[in-house]
Amino acid sequence: MNREDLLANIAEWRERIGEASAKWGGAEICAVSKTVDADTINLAWEGGIRTLGENRVQELMGKIDALNPDYRIHLIGRLQTNKVKPIIDRVAMIQSVDREALAREISRRAVNAGVEMPVLVQVNIARESQKAGVDEEQLVPLLKLCAGLPGVKVDGLMAIMPIADDPEDVRPYFRRMRGWFDRLRDMDLPGVAMNTLSMGMSDDAVVAAQEGATMVRLGRALFGARPKL
């Protein structure tokens, strides 16, 4: 994608998401940059993008040194415990904490590296068997566990919605996630902050923003269609 098209896409989506999220105070765009080369990613900085979302550790580590060092990089894909070590001092947040073993490994690696890692707990709000994330019944216990681990800072929630032809079909799930976000903030659990609600992607980001996302994750909408891996 050339510079002009990329910057035009970013400007369009910043306006759309800004309007959709205005009643909530706005939502940030996390640019999902998997399969995108570092030179193209760096152009997005000119458009006001400050946060990147990467799915795969191996791909991220192959291009991270060529990226603008001022980007905040979030790991948004499902993370294996044996892939925590190389990223623990290279990313600004891990959005996909979905199980105790992963939380404990992040804690161990963070302590060893002398860092504090902000995390989001991923919720499988639609209870899809093929998707990662905790069911709602396990959400509070996992949040409490994460909050008690050294080197881990709980910053909020993340969710991936079902694929739908009409984004209106998944609006109830976004609304339910915002309900959890608000309830947990009101609960004021020790060590559990609700600053970030990451939900919504290219096909349903406007609905997500309307329903209270504080961050939407846009890949194809900004960078165009990517080759299937």
Give the strand order, joined by hyphens, for the main sheet: 7-6-5-4-3-2-1-8
Q: Could you tell me the mean pLDDT?
A: 96
Percentage of residues assigned to helices = 25-40%
- Named at the architecture level, the CATH assignment is Alpha-Beta Barrel
Q: What is the domain tally?
A: 1
How many DSSP helices?
8
Fill in the CATH topology: TIM Barrel
Instruction: State the low-pLDDT regions, or none.
Output: none
In N-to-C order, the SSE pattern is HEHEHEEHEHEHEHEH
What proportion strand?
A: 15-25%
Class, according to the CATH hierarchy? Alpha Beta
* N- to C-terminal distance: 18 Å
Q: How many strand units? A: 8
Please state the CA-atom Rg, rounded to the nearest Å: 17 Å
Oligomeric category: single chain
Would you tell me the structural class of the helices and strands? alpha/beta
Largest sheet: 8 strands, parallel
CATH superfamily: Alanine racemase
What overall form do the CA principal axes indicate? globular
